[in-house]
Amino acid sequence: MLAAVDGFGRQGKREQTVARWGVVATGGIAARFTQDVQALDGSEVVAVASRREASAKTFADRFGVPRAYGSWAGLFADPEVDVVYVATPHSAHRAAAGAALEAGKPVLCEKPFTLNSREAEELVALARERGLFLMEAMWTYCNPVIRRLVELVRDGAIGELRSIQADFGAAGPFAPGHRMRAPELGGGALLDLGVYPVSFAQLLLGEPARIQADAQLSPEGVDVNTGVLLGWENGAVAVLTCGLDGSSGTRATVTGTRGRIEVPEGFFSPDSFVLHRRGADAPETVRVHSPLHGMQHEAAEVAACLAAGRTESSLVPLSGTLAVLRTLDAVRERVGVRYPQDEAR
Question: CA 125 to CA 147: how far, in whole Å?
Fold first, then answer.
C-alpha cells in the first residue's frame, strides 16, 4: 500500500520567502548548499567567503555568486547579506558563527553545531543576547518525510516507542593527516557521522537518561568505530553505530508496541519509509510530495523564520541541538576521545 501527503504534512504548504545568503567556506557541503539555494525560488547566494581569496573567487565563478571575499569579516560586513550559512570544518564553527553573530547576522551553522556543548552554549547565549536567529543545519529535522514520521509516532501509530536502531558508516580508509583523523579538527566518526543517528533518536525520544558507549580509537586518538547505547526512563533504548572503516546501510528502525517504521538507506534524508502496523493487511509505504529537495528544506525553514521575525526554529530548536551535543560529549568521555578545544578557557 502506498500513502502520500503534501510536502508539509498536516501543517499544509507555506509560502516561499526570500533570503539573500552569504556562504562561509568553499568545500563540498558549501557547494551543495549553494546549488540547492540557487534553485530555490526567491532565494539566492549573494556572497561567499574563504580565508583564501582565490578559493572564494573560484567558488563564486563556478556558481555565479556576485561577490567573493578573502576573509569572513568582509562577508559579515556586507549589507546585502541577510543570513550567513557556516560550512567550515566543524572545528571552526564556533569562531565563524560567533563572528557572524557579533556582526549582527543571523546564522545557519552546519552540523555538528560545535565541537562540544560548551561552545554551543556560548553561541546560543550570544544569539539570544543579540536577538538574532540561530539554527543548526540538521537537514534531517526539516525533511518532510521525517516530519511525517514524527507525526505518526506522536499520534501513536506504532504504540509506545521501545527501541530505535540507526547506523552511519563510511568506507574510508582515511590517511594520516586527513581531517577525519585529526583531534584538533574534531576528527573521528562520532561528530561527522554519529551525530545523525544520535539526532534521529533524540528527535523521537528526547535527551537520554543513560549513556553507554565503546569505540576503537585511531593512533591519533579519534574514534574509528563506535557503538552507542542510550536509555530512557520509560524503558526505551537506542542502539546506534558509526564508523570510518566500513560503509554501512545507513538505515533506521523505530519499534513500538503496536508496530514499527523502517527508514531505508540514507535515513538522514529519506524520500519514503515503510510503516508496519499490527493487524494491518500489508505494510504501508509512506511518501511525501514536496516541491523542494535536499538542503532546500532547511533553507526554506530559515527564510520562513526570518520573515516571521523568529529567532529560533520550532523544527530545529536550540534546546534539541544542545541536548544532542551533551550526549556526544558524554559518548566521547566514555570512549576516551578529547579535543584540544575541550579544555576550559
Answer: 28
What residues are annotated to the active site?
111
Cα–Cα dist 92/178, whole Å: 16
Q: What is the pLDDT of residues 278-304, one digit of tens each?
A: 999 999 999 999 999 999 999 999 999
210, HSE (Cβ side, Cα atoms, 13 Å): 11
- The full DSSP string for 271-339 is SEEEEEETT-SS-EEEEE--S--TTHHHHHHHHHHHHTT-SS-SSS-HHHHHHHHHHHHHHHHHHT---
Which residues lie below 8 Å from residue 42, measured CB to CB, with a gap of 6+?
Answer: 16, 17, 18, 303
Half-sphere exposure of 211 (CA within 13 A, CB side): 19
For the stretch 64-117, pLDDT in tens is: 999 999 999 999 999 999 999 999 999 999 999 999 999 999 999 999 999 999
pTM of the model: 0.93
